[in-house]
Structure formats: C-alpha cells, structure tokens
Amino acid sequence: MPDFEMRQREESLAERPPLLEVKGLSTWFPVGRTLFGKVKHWTKAVDDISFTVREGETLGLVGESGCGKTTLSRTLLRLVEPTQGTIRYRGKDLLAMSARELRDMRKHIQIIFQDPYSSLNPRMTVGQAILEPMQVHGLYNNDKERRERVLQLLEKVQLLPEHYDRYPHEFSGGQRQRIVIARALALNPEFIICDESVSALDVSVQAQVLNLLRDLQREFNFTYIFISHNLSVVHFMSDTMMVMQKERSRKWGRRRRCTIVRRRLIPGN
What we know:
By secondary structure, the protein is of the alpha/beta class. Helices cover 35% and strands 30% of the residues. It has nine helices and ten strands. The strands form two sheets. It has a six-stranded mixed beta sheet with strand order 6-7-8-3-9-10, with helices on both faces. Helix 5 crosses helix 6, helix 5 (126-136) packs parallel to helix 7 (173-185) and helix 6 packs across helix 7. The longest helix is centred in the last third of the chain and has 18 residues, at 203-220. It is globular, with a radius of gyration of 19 Å. The termini are close together. Mean pLDDT is 83; it is low at 248-259 and 261-269.
C-alpha cells in the first residue's frame, strides 16, 4: 500500500468510534482443589487485558502457542465465561446480557475457527451448513430465499453452485475454510474473529484465503480480530498489532499469566 493511502487509512480509522472495548479482562481456570473444594491455584489463561477495536479495523493478535489467544477469542464471544473485566460492543455490556440478548448479538459477531473440518457437521451438506444459521435466526421469509442467499455466498467465496449438495469430506482444506467463511457471512455480521484461520493450510492456499478475507473486508467493511502465531501473516492482514506472551509463576509451574505486551500501528502492504 502506498504511503499516502496508508496515512489516509490510519486517519480514517482514528476518526471512527470504537466497535469493541475490552477492559481488565481475565479468564482463569481452577487447577487442583483441596478436600473441602477450595481451589489450590489458578491457570491464568488470560490476565488483565485491555484494548479497543475500531469499526473497519483489522486488529492482529500474535503470540506463541499456549499464550491464551484462543481463550481470549472465545471469551469475547462468551463461549467461555470470563473471571472479571468488561466487554462492550457498540457501548453495550456483553457480560450483562441475557441469553436472548446474547443470541441476537451473535448475529453481528462471528468466529472462524482454526480447523474447518471439525467446524462442519460431516452429516450435513455444505448448503445445509450455511443455511442452518439463517433458519435459527429467522432470516429471510422461506428456505427458497435462504437457498438463493447460500448460492450467492458460495460464489462470493469462489465456490460453485454444484457444491451446495456435497459433503465436507469431498473438499480440500482450503475449500472447507471457504465454506466456513461463507457460513460466517450468512448472518451478515459486522465483526469477525479469525482464530488461526489459515494455520492448518499450506502456504499457497493460505495466500488465497488471506486475499479473500481482505477482499471481503473492502466490500463489506468488516472489522476483524486476526489471531495467529505467524508474525508475517499478521503483518500482511492487520492495521494494528498486539503481542501476547505467557509467564510462568515460580511457585506454580503450571500457572500462566498472559498479557498484551505491545500494541502498535504497522505499515501497510
């Protein structure tokens, strides 16, 4: 990206309001209990993390394996409940939401997991897997309209209409990841968390999926948190980068304290 375009994007992002605000977020898991049920010590998978993500921004999160990146992503969606802290999405406290409110909110926030094969039900066709979230959330008037939308999404991720009736095992790893991306787009989200979404793919397929994600962001103005242990991939995708590291307590070798140690704007490509 030329310097003047990079500066324009930086200025544009700086003017936008925060979409996601995280303050003092911690997620601890108990390790070992006494005879009376008291926790002996805790594994601090995520400890006192604070950051913001602006609308349309790609925030890259990089760190070594085991530093708490995946736990953080699942905590943001409340797939794992945090120990303490606040998570605000467009000013609304996600931790104070009821189950019904949270379900409605999840239409706007989606996640792309690391392993596309385990993310898909092997007994469901690709079309059914993409159509199901629309049925659950009551989008569109009937299944005919939903099917048309699925076909549009397949085209958007560079797959063919005939793939609708095929099963996940009939596709390559890169194609399965495209299917998972199409399913994430089915609810018309604003914010997508990509949790190691290309780490299981070979280099050439990685490049195709990364370019697809960037093209979709330009078209729909998505906001991403892009998680990876690969610094070059995060550099390619992100406007801003955060680095997580893990620390081991001297007293308890199994306890980890994971914190963000750096946040900086990175140059465009």
